Structure formats: C-alpha cells, structure tokens
Amino acid sequence: MLPRPGEDSYRFALRSAFFLAVGGHLAWILGERGEKGDTDLRAAPGASRAGGSPGGSRGRTRRKSRPGNGRGVAAGLSSRCEDFEDDPRALGARGHRRSVSRGSYQLQAQMNRAVYEDRPPGSVVPTSAAEASRAMAGDTSLSENYAFAGMYHVFDQHVDEAVPRVRFANDDRHRLACCSLDGSISLCQLVPAPPAVLRVLRGHTRGVSDFAWSLSNDILVSTSLDATMRIWASEDGRCIREIPDPDGAELLCCTFQPVNNNLTVVGNAKHNVHVMNISTGKKVKGGSSKLTGRVLALSFDAPGRLLWAGDDRGSIFSFLFDMATGKLTKAKRLVVHEGSPVTSISARSWVSREARDPSLLINACLNKLLLYRVVDNEGTLQLKRSFPIEQSSHPVRSIFCPLMSFRQGACVVTGSEDMCVHFFDVERAAKAAVNKLQGHSAPVLDVSFNCDESLLASSDASGMVIVWRREQK
C-alpha cells in the first residue's frame, strides 16, 4: 500500500493500520477453519508479538495453500501483517505500533485464559483481562477512585431526630430523599446550586422507619411506626394512598418488587412479611410469611425471584417469589448470630464478562460487616468475608458501590457507630480498608451513592445528612 498524493505519514499509517487490522482478523478467522493437520501460525508460549521465535530471531513460517481451505489466504495476510511491523511507516505520531497480527490475537487469547485460570478461588470481580469493562471506570486504584474532596452540602432539617434512611433516586445524580423519626420525608435537589429541600412529605403520625423509590422515581412508598404505609407522588408530594398494616403492627421496612412495582413487600413488628398491592391497598393472597423476630431488613435479587428478610433475632430467611401471583414460599434460613439484629441486607448479582457471583452484604450488630455468597437458586448463603466496623446496637446500613462491576477490586460502603463512613475492598482478605470519611457527630446509620458515584450521602442518629463530593480525576 502506497501513500496517496498529499497524504502525510500519520494519516497513511492510520489508514494502513485499519486495513491490516481487518486483514489480520480475517486471517485468524480463516485459519481457524482450516484442517487440523495443517501447520499453524499460532504464537507459541513465549513467542514475540509478531510470531518470532522464543530466542528472539525473526523467522516466519510459510505454508502452501490447499485448494478450497482458505489457509493460503490466511498465511498471506498474516505474513503481510508481520512485514508491516518492520516498516517504519507503521509507527504513529508517538511511535505506537498499530498493526495487528494473527499471532497477537492468539497470544492475547492465551493470556486471557491464563489470567482467568489464575484467579483465586471465590474471586468475584473482573480480572485484568476485562479491558473494555475496566476502561469504563478507568485504571485508577480503588483508593484513588474513592478519594473525596470533602463535604458538598449538609442538610439539617431533621436535626434532633434520627434519619434512618437516605436514598438517591434511581439512575439520578442530583435527587435525594431521606426519612426521619420525626414522621416526615424530605425530597432534596442538589443541582442547580445551592442544594435545597424541595418539599417535606408529612402525614405519618409517628417516625418513618423506611422508604423506597419506584423504578421510575414517580412514587415513593414509606413505612412508619404508626402501623401504616403511604404512597407518595414525588412530583408534588401528594399522599396518593394510606394503607394500614394487615396486623396493625409497627411497620419497620419496605422494598419494591423490582420487576413489578405495583407490589411492595413490608416487614412488621409482629414478625410478619407481607406482599402488598399498592393499587388496591390489599395484601396479596399467599404473600405473607412469619419470621422468628421483628422484621428489620428486606432485599430482592435483581430478577425479583428471591427475597431475603432479616429479623432482630439474628436470622435471615430466603423466600421464593412467584412472579405471576406474588406468593411467597419460604426456602432457607441462616442464623447469622443468635440474638444479633440483622439491620441491613443488600443484594447484588455481580455481572461482568468474567465474574458472576450473587452476594449479600449484611449488618448484624456484631461489630462486623459481613459478605455472603449466594450459592444456589434457593438463596442459601455462605460467608465469604467480614470487615471490622463498630456496630453493637444502632440500625446501621451498608451498600454495594454502583460501579463495582467495572473495576479491579470491588468496593462496599457502610455506616458505623464510630461516626465514620467506611469503604472496604471486598476482594482483600487483609488491609481491606479503602477510605474513611469523618464529619458526623453521631452514629452513621445509612449511606447512598448517586448513579455515577460522584456524590455520596450519609445520615446519622442526630438527624444530619451529609453529601460528600468525590475528587474529580
């Protein structure tokens, strides 16, 4: 291939590299279809990128083509790719080689397989071979990724009463809500500056224990110690419906069914879990089950087929959820620690090109944050790792970081009774601490990231909500 009239060397190199890269890929495809007995151009272990011998010599293997098998074409294209590497015109403006040989495809495949096979048992995050996924989050370390520039804003409208729950809206960077034991829920907007409380939702006669955003963020559901759940319109703050608990008990937690947001699961102080239809205001037939204690935490898996519920006696129950009817079927029970309240359950199926390991993150008043592996379709749990925090009595919660699937390592964030926000890399058995944020003056009860992890919100037992801004890279 020759330069076009008036074409500079850089543009010529780019054009040539494109055609030769396509040719190299075609050569690889055609070569795979050839007869097994034919001489192959695959790079042997230790060979150079362009097919050289391990000793460093630059020899090339040539083969005769056989009619109809396409391998002569493969050899020709592969040889041309190798010859091009020796041509100085193959170098870009900064000296980077831009050619792609068949050998390099083979060698990269071998490297990918080797890295995958060398992963330690139980590894659940993408390896270094997942270049495309890693590129989405950058090549910085977890410590660098979770470095924070300081406080972005402090909300104090609920001061003097604990804020047990704070949540960013789904797939949203700047909408935030928090509930308080003063009986109200605040909807906040962080942009445009200055951050402000848009509206306060009032109606519950006692403290609000939990709330959740619907998938489309158009409604919120809240549970309260006044034994009712309420459905709110997020746009104008209207209370659309008030639904009493079927048992007349304090409602302590709630979660939307992730696939069908018409259904909400609530847990109460009389040890019961109920599936509620928020359109009719009635519980679903067959959608109730009893635990061993007060129900403090609920979480679905992503497909919505498994539900976990934790109680104040230290047990976690898994339920099979019937998507057609809303019926709950009790499947498994795990005693985390007898008598230790399970205050938070967060479920995540880590999906990447190289790892899928459904997991639960648990807080259970053991001065530890617990990570469990989900080992089967019935929600059986196996302890994978624990991390030291301070939690002996307060309802502390934790979360998985939203962008965890795209990095080397995976980060979780938790509140703590030491008035700090803690970050841990769940893949490190030792020295797992990634960062610690200090600024609260009371136990930190809940944490929430926005969708791109640029902001983190944390709430505490004194009613303060702090929004932290991550350092820009």
Automatic annotation (TrEMBL):
It comes from the Eukaryota. Residues 42-51 have a biased composition (Low complexity). InterPro entries: WD40/YVTN_repeat-like_dom_sf, WD40_repeat_dom_sf, WD40_rpt, WD_repeat-ST_regulator. One of its GO terms (molecular function) is promoter-specific chromatin binding. The gene is WDR13. Residues 39-81 are annotated as: Disordered. PROSITE patterns: WD_REPEATS_2, WD_REPEATS_REGION. It is found in: Nucleus. WD repeats lie at residues 201-242, 437-473. GO terms for cellular component: nucleus. The chain crosses the membrane at residues 12-31. This is WD repeat-containing protein 13. Keywords: Membrane, Methylation, Nucleus, Phosphoprotein, Repeat, Transmembrane, Transmembrane helix, WD repeat. It comes from Catagonus wagneri (Chacoan peccary). Pfam families: WD40 (PF00400). The keyword NADP does not apply. The keyword Membrane applies.
